[in-house]
Amino acid sequence: MRRSTIALLGAAALLATVPWLGLPPFFESMLYLILHWVALASSWNLLSGYSGYFSFGHGAFFGIGMYTSATLTSKFDWPFLWTLPAAAAMAAGVGALIGLAAFRVHAVRAELFALLTLATTFVVATVILNSPVDGGQGVYLNAVALPALGPTAQGTFYLLALGAAALSVIAAAAIYHARLGIGLLAIHDDEDVAEVMGVPTFRYKLGTFALSCGLAGVVGGIHALFVSYVTAGDTFTITMPLTVVLMAVLGGSRHWAGPVVGATAITLLLFAFTGGEAAVVGKGLTGLILIVVILFMPEGIVGQAMKWWSASRKKALAQRSSPASDAPAAMATAVPAAAPVAADARPVILRATGVRKHFRGVQALRGVDVEIRRGEILGLLGPNGSGKSTFINVVSGHFAVTSGSIDFAGVRISHVPAHRVARSGIARTYQIPRPFSHLTVLQNVGLPAMFGAAGLDRRAAEDAAWQWLEFTGLKDKAHALPDDLNLHQRKFLEFARALASRPQVLMLDEVLSGLTPSEIDDAVALIRRIRDQGATIVFVEHVMRAVMALCDRIVVFEQGQVLAEGAPQEVMQRPEVVAAYLGTQAEDASASQAPLPRMAEVAHA
Ligand SMILES: Nc1ncnc2c1ncn2[C@@H]1O[C@H](COP(=O)(O)OP(=O)(O)OP(=O)(O)O)[C@@H](O)[C@H]1O
């Protein structure tokens, strides 16, 4: 069990003694409300804070829990404690149904998800209000027996809220420290890249949303008995989800402790200003604090505190030596060395047959047949817009093929989700680097080590990440954020991430574009080191001297079709290839007045 979980369990056990301390009932009520909001804000944060899918429907799931407990106790005479698992199951079930629909649709992200969940609140409220569950009368719980958990009724409510808060916070902390947590944080930054690196985004979002809704249902069930009279008007308000969002944002939604801090601070503040004009002052003050925090501490209180703490430790950590200093040796275990055999004699590891990809009117790939052989560097060449990146996108699962098939190591992957393609041993880089902007360089590299073909646990993934950072020369940037890197370093970060997943096939999409000549030399040397370890590399590139220096074979694309393939020197001399290249370059050159490169120079570079 993790230290944070043990510490939280210890804290919960200590707090459980409070009802026997003989505090005035006022304090127990106040503590009940703090724990109530801690539980709600922490449960909301599981999906919405970590993955950025802001839900404004938390009130709906809280309300479902309220009505489930209220109905089962008052109309079916269930013992109250038995109704809480039912409340959780109902809320989680409805949440899962909404998630099943919403998370399948690529477009339902960000504000659309927020609106969808808000609409859910109104739908649930309308259904409940107009059904026998409420029937417009509300549900009374005056006659429901309160379980004797504490010495007093207030003590019992306090203990129930403490249990719900402990459940939510421990779940939040456990997820935060698990691979699920890093997967959700990656979804927050770039969901498509997370999926291509092996994060099962749909499953993660769905499971976390159901858990988040289920916990809200438990809190609702407890609160039903606390208020003892449940009405749709008081339950399904926009104020409740808004309050929860503000609490999590104030505390910091990217850390499990953020909602705890935010919920405690806001509840205490509102408690300090109760009644009449004081309440108005309290609300005004809360709003003002929120504005200040959002403007000056966008990461929230906990996020900002962690920033200061990590800045002070950065220097010391940068000195940390990597677990294994011999990175190329690590590479040898990562990718089995290939015997020096002729390119044509190597076995085929990936075969694309008749692959078509259409984007509405645009036919980006028009029946492409490509074979990639184990251990080779295959160059993908072609004029701009000829379909090279689209080919990488369909092989990596980023886009589904329109028709045709792709087989990798004997398994058909053309309709497999991208995270499973990554897991099976295919990694890629992006033409324009797409790092996870809120994760450190080390975390960026550790993520594919966890979710890619390597499938390491979090600690082993971090050790592996250090090795790949050393291999790519980024070790001293391990604790920096990607925004602090220059283009050269960001391109090398793309390399490190792709390598960390321990792929059998590594696809490099224009990794040299935008680099200076000496940076290109560095990158070519790095690709040589990767090749020397026997990796299979697909290399999309316009920098001819690098293509000619590195590639065993090349495939030339034109207008979404394969124009030519074979040995680089020979293919680049073919008239149709010269025509395709010189055609586009001539157009480009006449537009820019730039001199044309001579084909002979290109071929002999
Ligand atoms: N997501 C998309 N939606 C619509 N059209 C697209 C999309 N992606 C690519 N295309 C189109 O598909 C065609 C092939 O594009 P692709 O990016 O694969 O070419 P490329 O050979 O990689 O070009 P470049 O060398 O400039 O990167 C182009 O006409 C492009 O506009």
TrEMBL record:
A Pfam family per the record: ABC_tran
Localisation: Cell membrane
Keyword Cell membrane: yes
Alphabetized InterPro entries for the sequence: AAA+_ATPase (IPR003593), ABC_AA/LPS_Transport (IPR051120), ABC_transp_permease (IPR001851), ABC_transporter-like_ATP-bd (IPR003439), BCA_ABC_TP_C (IPR032823), LivM-like (IPR043428), P-loop_NTPase (IPR027417)
Membrane topology: Multi-pass membrane protein
Residue stretches spanning the membrane: 29-47, 54-74, 80-103, 110-129, 157-176, 206-230, 260-281, 287-306
UniProt KW keywords: ATP-binding, Cell membrane, Membrane, Nucleotide-binding, Transmembrane, Transmembrane helix, Transport
Domain of life: Bacteria
Tagged with keyword Ubl conjugation: no
Main location: membrane
Domain ABC transporter: 350-584
GO terms assigned for molecular function: ATP binding
Entry protein name: Branched-chain amino acid ABC transporter ATP-binding protein/permease
Originating species: Variovorax dokdonensis
